[in-house]
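Subject: sequence -> structure tokens, single chain

Hey, anyone have a minute? Need the predicted structure for the following. Not urgent.
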Amino acid sequence: MTNENTNINEEKAKEALDGYASKVGADDVKETLGKEDEIKKLFKRVKVLAKYFNDLCDILELLRDRVTGTYKETPWTTIAALTGALIYVLSPIDLILDFIPFIGFLDDALVIGLAIKLAQSDLEKYRVWKAHRKEQAA
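Reply:
Had a minute. Here:
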């Protein structure tokens, strides 16, 4: 394997994220939510993904609330990017093959981190909405 195949940067991660996000449809969001347990286990197991676990939980809740129509404020582009990033992480065939020891998940971490960064303001709005909703229910 050449260094080119294991070298990933933010530009390559953005290209990968854009590619996956551009293909996401409503059914993909539902299908991704159906793999919630698998996704959570992966994020807990893989050290470079574990730091995103709390964000992951909020992302999954946001996607669920979007699918059910409970929360509609997040633009589709953000929903598609977050879903595309999760699909990318689940895919064993990506920029760096996941089975390669030590570096196999670096690209996945870069893609999910980039998606979170791009969606940060929408995630914050969702978190505020969710906290306000909990206060009202109490």
